[in-house]
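User: Could you check the structure of this?
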Amino acid sequence: MDDRELLKDGAVGLLTAIAEEHPLGHQSSKAARFVLTSRHGVKVEIMFEKNMTSPPNLWCLEKAAGPALIARLKPKPSPASKLRTSYGPDGKVQYGRHSALERMDQLGEDDLVCFAPESFAEIGEIIDRLRSVAPSDMA
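Assistant: Sure, the predicted structure tokens are below.
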């Protein structure tokens, strides 16, 4: 088992232990969808890419991640304004994000960030922040 596989398995294990499976469920080999309830009772959606060919991407609302964590870990921004602005080879409009996000209530149409943690410590830092989300963060 290589480092990426260990990191991904550890992240999915941690999220499984502290969050609920999202009502849409997981995608068998590509994505794990969760709803984490913060210490303040706020429901926070998370999508983790578990496919072994992709980086260990963790997607969440930009406002849930907060400016301090974003400044420190520099996730890739994914603004809602960029959704459905490109076309596929078949001429159809493309969603523009991982397909597992599209039908999620919070993550489907809002401003997101995509973290690519490189260590268990970074995963812990992201999860700690999400567990601290207050209602005012989501306003």
